[in-house]
DNA sequence: TATTGTTATACTCTATAACTATA
DNA sequence: TATAGTTATAGAGTATAACAATA
């Protein structure tokens, strides 16, 4: 097959996706990485900051700015771990869950629109392949 | 369908592709964007720097560092345009073409390996969908 | 006056190394 | 001494404005 290289295609599509997400996240007062952190929090239960850094692939020092901002906005709380007081347990607040849910819906709709031009079978294969590639290359 | 968000999947896969490309480009003495510029030069014929900036999506001021480096390495030349002497026409040298071809081969092999785990039909659909999405969202 | 290529400046993002408090 | 979280510093990448040469 003769097509442009993966790096080119992926970076172009990534740019498009980010451009479409930006207004959604702006409306919620979230930066891109803030949203990634919220998403990770919804899945894993009460992680320490170190665990959160590991699951998001974000450096622990860079995570701090995101957490500070999210905490100021009342979307997360940081609590001391009574078992090991060096740890700080991060968790979503009700407000954080609400914002996250609304962003997820908007982003889901955006993605549906973005993929709407594909043949249904191609779209399913695309999503399946993309998921497989990311899982197997961990 | 319930899968991780596109932004997450694409950024993960993009990171993986870049990690696999890096040793190839390092071996050729190329940075990521240098390679993108070489690729663009192979397709479009004798562009000015402004045209090259437009086709790569790179800002004209940021392009300059790439061109300086590539010219120092003898992979491209910049020639004055006799028709409009404000323009500088950029073109690949024989050495540049050689390096580009060898990188393309290595990257093609890397991509084949990366995609090898997919069902053949899924792989074809994935490549088709990715190409369609990038073309239609221009 | 407008445009091409260039340089300069400031701003963001990232990487690294220290520092504190706990263990 | 080792670890979790934090802060500080320097570096890379980026955006913006200004500049010289040419149209």
From TrEMBL, chains A, B:
It comes from Nocardioides albertanoniae. Keywords: DNA-binding. It comes from the Bacteria. One of its GO terms (molecular function) is DNA-binding transcription factor activity. The keyword Lipoprotein does not apply. Pfam families: MarR_2. The lineage of its organism: Bacteria, Bacillati, Actinomycetota, Actinomycetes, Propionibacteriales. The keyword Cell inner membrane does not apply. This is DNA-binding MarR family transcriptional regulator. InterPro entries: HTH_MarR-typ, MarR/SlyA-like, WH-like_DNA-bd_sf, WH_DNA-bd_sf. PANTHER family: MARR FAMILY REGULATORY PROTEIN, TRANSCRIPTIONAL REGULATOR, MARR FAMILY. PROSITE patterns: HTH_MARR_2. Residues 3-135 form the HTH marR-type domain. GO terms for biological process: response to stress.
